[in-house]
Amino acid sequence: MLPVSAARDSLYFTAMASMWALNYPLLKIALMYEAPLFVLFFRVLFGAVFSVAMIGGIRNFPRGLRDNVLIMMTGLMNSALFMGLWFLGENTESASLSSIIIYTFPIINVVLSYLFLGESITRFRAGGIAIGFAGLLIIFANQISVRLNTGLIYLVAAAIIWSVSAVIYKRYLNGRDVGAVNAMQFVYAVPFVLVWAASTERFVPAGINTVFLAIMLYMGFFGSAVAYLVYFTLIRRYDVSQISGMFFLVPALSVIFSFLLLHETNSIYTYTGLALISLGIYTGSRRGSGEELNELLSEEIAAVEKGIRKL
Question: 202 to each of 37, 106, 192, 195, 212, how far by Cα in Å?
């Protein structure tokens, strides 16, 4: 029987992956109304408001200078630079291409965790990530034409920055209150993103309509405040490299959501890629991850297969 803790983490991860996967097609819709960095400003603003409310207000924030500096660094890297470069990249590239480049994050993460956290890279973890990434390549093989332009550079830089921020959190903030760290990262990012947006883009008041606000509320609450709380909780409990392969589930689910919301057509490449992702998730959990992670990843395989059947 699945242990209570593993069942709980499986549920948490599935929810987080679904929330983040839905961000990709929703961002494409939001970019029809506002410039990328102003879209980010509203996401981070709502993320800050909801995250602070979830922990009962700023009175629960850490007071130490060192903690605040580290959380500010995490917020600027994670909530400002990573998301800003992602949004700028997806403004010129497809959601599918953006997703595959952003989710080179697990591969970068394993390398950085080995170099700076002393985490081991077993042959199963390395093989699982390689298989999962191959699956992502196959999913988008019929629609990707990789060319060196600004959008692609933004997306690659975003994946690297996200990986670095994960290592910083794991090394320096792992023992801090997860809810407080999550809320403070958004609070520190808000003024930075506002200045960045106001100095480089033009705000369109007419773009603030019901559809845009609904998307921002979703991305601020579910896609930011809730999802990042789960994310920080998971990387606190497990090695970063241990759960990195699981993140391939996010772009796999984004294919399903894009089909449902944007009516994107899928091909045999999509189904073959999703099958490889499932295999990669299973392979990455074979050794060095513990029985709980094996059970957790089995749940994710079932979630992907269910999505395939729906398509």
Answer: 10, 34, 16, 12, 16
Query: Tokens 């480089």 identify what position?
Result: 200
Give residue-wise pLDDT tens across range 137-160. Answer: 787 666 555 555 788 889 989 999
Q: Which pair of structure tokens corresponds to residue 164?
A: 């670095």
196-224 burial string, b = 16+ CB within 10 Å, else e?
bbeeebeeeeebeeeebeebbebbbbbbb
Write down the pTM of the prediction.
Answer: 0.82
User: What pLDDT, on the 0 to 100 scale, is given for residue 240?
Assistant: 64
Contact call for residues 234 and 9 (beta carbons, < 8 A): yes
CB count within 10 Å of CB 185 equals 29
Q: What is the number of alpha carbons within 13 Å of residue 295 lying toward its C-beta?
A: 14
Which segments of the chain have a pLDDT < 50?
1-2, 4, 288-296, 299, 303
Dihedral over Cα of 268, 271, 276, 279: its sign: negative
**What is the pLDDT, as a whole number, of residue 53?**
92
Q: For position 290, what pLDDT does the model report?
A: 46
pLDDT at 52: 92
> 3-state SS of 10-25?
HHHHHHHHHHHHHHHH
Residue 68 to residue 80: CA distance in whole angstroms: 16
**136 Cβ contact list (under 8 Å, min separation 6):** 100, 103, 248, 251, 252, 273, 277
Q: How far apart are CA 197 and CA 219, in angstroms?
A: 18
